[in-house]
């Protein structure tokens, strides 16, 4: 199992480096136990992604204290009552997508004297049931986060609809990012990370292609 994981990440890494030297690979380790993840940490991998706060705390609290070069990314839907834990444990939040959440993050950051790096999640496919801020509200929301709340927003994030035109969504994201003067882009998963990189992604979030299919 562990050999396979290292093999997987090495292949992905090789493919990506041919295209772009600087793309960050977030190994999305949700549902996998720390025993499964450990070989990748020992291998020197730095960026890891989780989508559930409770699960992340159980898995990462201890190991993050001893390995302080590790970077933990919150990539899932975030409830305001969990924000205080996230500020303590995580380094990045990819799912800032509403005013109430942004305000809470700002308050907890002040309280703890700590600033995370943030992505604003955009509902790029304008899907009814999807998380993310609507494109029409993005400009106001970004400036509110940046100026009123003093959040360190480094870029935009999306989970586009799985469709043939995923590239069009990625290109639209690049355009929006540029229009706000932002430099980082969180987009691309196991099925489409090379396309995302071609379109300018700087953080790809890869789960199953590294760890195998998730059971849960
Ligand atoms: C699970 C998840 C991923 C990784 O998905 P894979 O298809 O397994 O690579 C990426 N981003 C988010 C937001 C996720 O929840």
List keywords for this structure.
single chain; 46% helix; 216 residues; alpha/beta; 8 strands
Helix share bin? 40-55%
Q: What Rg is obtained from the alpha carbons, in whole angstroms?
A: 17 Å
Main beta sheet: strand number and arrangement?
8 strands, parallel
Mean pLDDT: 96
Low-confidence stretches: none
Shape by Cα distribution: globular
Distance between the termini: 18 Å
N to C succession of SSEs: HEHEHEHEHEHEHEHEH
Distinct small-molecule ligands in the complex: pyridoxal-5'-phosphate
| Spatial order of strands in the largest sheet | 7-6-5-4-3-2-1-8
**Class of secondary structure makeup:** alpha/beta
Please work out how many helical segments DSSP would assign. Answer: 9
| Strand-residue proportion | 15-25%
- Structure summary, number of beta strands: 8
Task: Summarize this entry quickly.
The protein has 216 residues and is an alpha/beta fold. It is built from nine helices and eight strands.
């Amino acid at each position: 199992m562990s050999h396979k994981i290292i093999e997987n990440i090495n292949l992905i890494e090789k493919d990506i480096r041919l295209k772009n030297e600087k793309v960050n690979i977030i190994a999305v380790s949700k549902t996998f136990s720390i025993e499964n993840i450990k070989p990748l940490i020992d291998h020197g991998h730095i960026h890891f992604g989780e989508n559930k706060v409770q699960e992340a705390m159980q898995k990462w609290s201890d190991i993050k204290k001893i390995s302080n070069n590790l970077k933990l990314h919150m990539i899932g839907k975030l409830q305001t009552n969990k924000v205080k834990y996230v500020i303590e444990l995580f380094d990045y939040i990819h799912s800032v997508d509403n005013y109430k959440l942004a305000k809470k993050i700002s308050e907890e950051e002040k309280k703890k004297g700590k600033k995370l790096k943030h992505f604003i999640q955009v509902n790029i496919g304008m899907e009814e049931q999807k998380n993310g801020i609507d494109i029409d509200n993005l400009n106001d929301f970004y400036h509110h986060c940046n100026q009123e709340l003093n959040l360190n927003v480094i870029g935009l994030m999306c989970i586009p609809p799985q469709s043939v035109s995923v590239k069009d969504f990625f290109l639209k994201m690049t355009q929006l990012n540029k229009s706000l003067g932002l430099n980082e882009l969180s987009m691309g998963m196991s099925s489409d990370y090379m396309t995302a990189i071609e379109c300018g992604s700087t953080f790809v979030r890869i789960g199953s292609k590294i760890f195998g299919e998730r059971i849960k």
